Amino acid sequence: MPTSRRGPLAALALVALGCVALSGCSPVAGTASTGSAPPAPVSTSASATGSAPSSSAAPASSAAQGITVPSTFPTSGSVPGTSGPGDGTVGAAGIGDPYYPTAGNGGYQIDGYDLNLQYQPDRNALTSTATLTGSVTADQGLTRFDLDLQPNLTVGAVTVDDAPATFDQQDAELVITPASALPAGSPLHVTVSYAGSPGVVGGGTANLGDGGWYRTDSGGAFVAGEPTGASAWFPVNEHPADTATFAVTATVPQGWQVISNGVQKTDGLPAPPAGMTTVRWELDVPVASYLDTIYIDRFTTVDGTLSDGRPVVSAIAPDAPDAATDLARQTPAVIDVLSGFFGPYPMPAAGGIFTGSDTGYALETATRPVYTTGVEDLTTVVHELAHQWYGDDVTVQRWSDICLNECFASYAQWLYGEKVNGEDLDAMWKQQMRGYLNKSAFWSSPLVDMGAGNEFTRVYDKGPIALHALRRQIGDDAFFKIIKDWPARYGGKNASFDDFEAFVNQETGKDNTAFIDAWFRGTTVPAAQYLYPGDLGS
Ligand code: TRP
Ligand code: ZN
Description:
Elements: H1 6-17, E1 89-90, E2 108-120, E3 125-136, E4 142-148, E5 153-160, E6 163-164, E7 166-170, E8 173-177, E9 187-196, E10 200-201, E11 211-215, E12 221-224, E13 244-253, E14 257-260, E15 263-265, E16 276-287, E17 294-297, E18 300-305, E19 311-316, H2 323-342, E20 350-354, E21 370-371, H3 378-386, E22 395-396, H4 403-421, H5 425-436, H6 440-444, H7 462-474, H8 476-490, E23 494-495, H9 497-508, H10 513-521, H11 528-531
Parallel strand pairs: 1-4, 2-13, 19-20, 20-21, 22-23
Antiparallel strand pairs: 2-3, 3-9, 4-8, 5-6, 5-9, 7-8, 10-11, 11-12, 12-17, 13-16, 14-17, 15-16, 18-19
Helix pairs in contact: 2-3, 3-4, 4-7, 7-8, 7-10, 8-9
C-alpha cells in the first residue's frame, strides 16, 4: 500500500523516468533527480522521440551460504543439508545475484505459477492458494528450500508433492521443509495457501521507486515492481534467471473487473460464491516474475487485434488520463512498427493497463504494460512495448545486465521517431552529446556492472546514445540485422551483456569488444578513436 515512502521515491522515479521521453531527460546530473535543464528537442513535431517531457534484503535464512542455483545460473556449489531428513541440500536463500543476495532461491527452478485468489477491494484482503510446478536442480536433492514472500502475507499451509510440509516465514523468506527429501532432478509440485493485506515493498526497487501491490484512488489495486514485485502477492522464486508461465483465477465482488497477463479463459471456471465473480487469465510463455501483474478495478476495456489476429485487450481506469483510450487504440500499430525492427511480436496477446494512479512510472509487464498518470504518452507506450522483445522475451540473467532491457527500449523510441516521424537521429545525438561531453557524472556510471542500486542511473539517457554510436560504428545493415536476430536467438532465454557483445562480434565478423567496452563499460568519455563513429564527428 502506498505509504509515506511513496512521496519522495515516486518523485525520484518520475524524474528518472522522465528520461523515457528523450526531450525530458536531464542531459546529465550526478543523480537522476538533480533536474538540470533538458536539451531542447531537435524536432519540434510531437512524436515518440520529440514529444514534450512526459513528466516522464531481507535477512537470509540460515542456509544463506549454500548457493544452489539453477544450472543456467553459473555460481558456486551447494552445502549439504544437516537438518533435513536423509541426504540432500538445503536450498540457498538467494539465487546468487550479487546485487540482491536474497532474491530468488537455490536448489530448484519453477516452470509455472498458477494462483487461485480472492480479493476484497474495500478491505484490501487477499486470500490465495498458489500452485508452483518446477523441478529440483540441486545435485544432491533437497531437504529444504525457500520461496520469496513478503511477511505481511501469512502462510497457512504448504504441500510439497501432495504431502503436507512444515514451513517457517523468516522475513521475506518462506522456508519449506518437505516431509521427505526431494531427489535431484525430480519434478516439484508445491502449493502455498496464504492470506493478508498486500502492499508495497518499500525501498527495494533499485532507487527507482517502490514496487508491489498498489491500491488505486478508485478503490482497486494493481501490481508493478522491479526488481521486487511478485513477492508482494504470491510466493515466488523472485529472480529473472528463473522464468515461468503464469496464470491467475481471481474471484472478486460483482461489479469489479480483473485483468492480468496473457489471454482470458472462460471455460471450466468454478462457480463463484454468491455476490462474487470469477475471471481467469493465462500467460503460456515463460517470463520473469516482475512481469506478472494483475489489475482489479472498475475499468473499461479497449479491445482489438494484432495484424495476425492475436488479441489486444487494454484496461482503462475510471480516472485514467484522457489520452489513455487513444494510446490503447494505437497499441497494435506501435507493435507493427516495432516488429519491423525486432521481428515477430513474441507474446500471445497485447494491450496495456492504463491506471489513474500517480505512482510516476510505467512497467513492461508481459503482454500488458502498466502505465501511470505521469507516463501515459506515446513515448512511454513505445518504450514499454519494445520491452516485450527486450526484457520480457529475452530476459536478463542478472540485474547488472539491465542495459539489455533499458538501453534497447530507450533506443526503440529513437528508432520509432526516425521511422514514423523522419527524425534526424544523428542531429539529435550530436545535440545531446554537446550537453553531455563535459559532464563527468554522465560518464562515471557505466551501463553494465553499474553496482547495486545504480541499475537505472544511466540506462535511459546514455543507453540510446551508446547504441546509436554502435549503430554508426557497425553500419545500418549489421545493426538492424543484430536487433532482429538477437530476440530470435535469445527469445525465451536469459542473456547477459557478455552474450550480447559476443553476438555483435559474431554477426559482424569483427572484434568490436574495445568499442563496446568503451561505451558500455567505461566510466569516462570514450577514447577519441571510439567517440565519433561514422559521421557523428562532423
Ligand atoms: N522498467 C521500467 C521501465 O522501463 C522502469 C522501472 C524500474 C520500474 N524499476 C521500476 C517501474 C519499478 C515500476 C517499478 O519503464
Ligand atoms: Zn524501460
